Amino acid sequence: MLENDQLAQWDRENFFHPSTPLGQFARGELNNRIVTGGKGVYIEDREGNKLLDAFAGLYCVNIGYGRQEIAEAIAAQAKELAYYHSYVGHGTEANITLAKMILDRAPDHMSKVYFGQSGSDANETNIKLVWYYNNVLGRPEKKKIISRWRGYHGSGLMTGSLTGLETFHNQFDLPLPYVVHTDAPYYFRRDNLGQSEAEFVKQCADNLDALIQKEGPDTIAAFIGEPVLGTGGIVPPPAGYWEAIQAVLNKYDILLIVDEVITGFGRLGSMFGSDHYGLKPDIMTIAKGLTSAYAPLSGSIVADRVWKVLEDGTDKYGAIGHGWTYSAHPIGAAAGVANLKLIDELKLVDNAKDTGAYFVQGLKDAVGDLPIVGDVRGEGIMAAVEFVKDKDSRTFFDPTDKIGYAVVGALLERHKVIGRAMPQGDILGFAPPLCMTKEEADTVIAATKDAIETVIAKL
Ligand code: PLP
């Protein structure tokens, strides 16, 4: 390994990092961290720090770091056949097996998997499939997609448009036409504090209905949503939300794309968020937990009713004109097969449920009464603590106070625990590997309490 200084310098001189304040990083005003290894919920860096990663990378290393079984499956695949494409009926044992394993786990009415590389490209695929679907059905005007403010669906041109977060739009001239945003199911941030959860849910559904009416039901093709808002703030929906939304979509023959990139394969303590909330998707997006990020792979799972139209379309117009060189990459697929097997063997979906419930309750008990904590919430093994300046009036801090970042900084510096300052609002997010133990959860809870108290002491 190179000397610290040299690698750190090359990093600043050559590497364009995503989601990074570029000038600050290039000038050396922002630390870099060179990560060297990981095991279970821990990662290690070159300075010898051992950090408890309570965000599983980017909510993706669900199985935990350092699983040799997956590394070996990847190596075996690379030695046998590192690559062949999947166009015009070509496949490998790994990607064919993985497609079957996914469908065995997905809701019964799902039919086929289209593989990509990332959550973003899978959602691009989904929008193209929806447009193709309506063209084949002779409804060329039915093309707009509704997504939610604070939804996150990727950072491509279309998917960045679907994403309902300002930093993904500003200075990029997004959102593109064809994308319409509706309410986030974010009860804690409701405008009217006196509103009950049921009233809020009704308002979300009524506003969606009104938006569809305004745009014209014949112009709306699909609605896309994450079962639990992720990057928008880790916000589980209020009770009855999905039922109310699905009723509106069914009324206007609007397809439902359920973005399970975070929730797929166990994060909510159920195999999919769709099972968890009784959703009936027409298309499901999967990525992250599919391989636990041991190799890049994503998928679009299409339901019977969509598949039928796709078949009719290609009978009429020829082969579907959509493909990536790396669709169904055999190395990603081998990682996926080994990962899904391990999730079953280690009973990680059950652990996400049990340890997740323990973790969320523990956080509530430990920090819920602290003066700047406005909300502690979670579902499965995913949680958030939201900070406010004044609890009674639910007054938020000024964004320039950067309270969320301060807490995340204290957590890291004082306890070597990684949480995430969510991008919009003062929100501390957690999404640890599904294998986290109760003892490790206790460590994160105690560290969080101390980090928040440290920030309070400086206010
Ligand atoms: N959809 C959701 C719900 C996500 O959380 C993400 C990434 O965080 C994406 C899509 C985009 O996935 P990727 O970053 O792999 O393109």
TrEMBL record:
Q: Which UniProt keywords apply?
A: Aminotransferase, Pyridoxal phosphate, Transferase
Q: Signal sequence span per UniProt? A: none
- Which cofactor names does the annotation list? pyridoxal 5'-phosphate
Keyword Glycoprotein assigned: no
**What molecular functions are annotated in GO for this chain?**
pyridoxal phosphate binding; transaminase activity
Q: InterPro entries given for it?
A: Aminotrans_3, Aminotrans_3_PPA_site, PyrdxlP-dep_Trfase, PyrdxlP-dep_Trfase_major, PyrdxlP-dep_Trfase_small
Q: Which family does it belong to?
A: Belongs to the class-III pyridoxal-phosphate-dependent aminotransferase family.
- What this protein is called in its record is L-2,4-diaminobutyrate transaminase
Lineage, broadest ranks: Bacteria, Pseudomonadati, Pseudomonadota, Alphaproteobacteria, Hyphomicrobiales
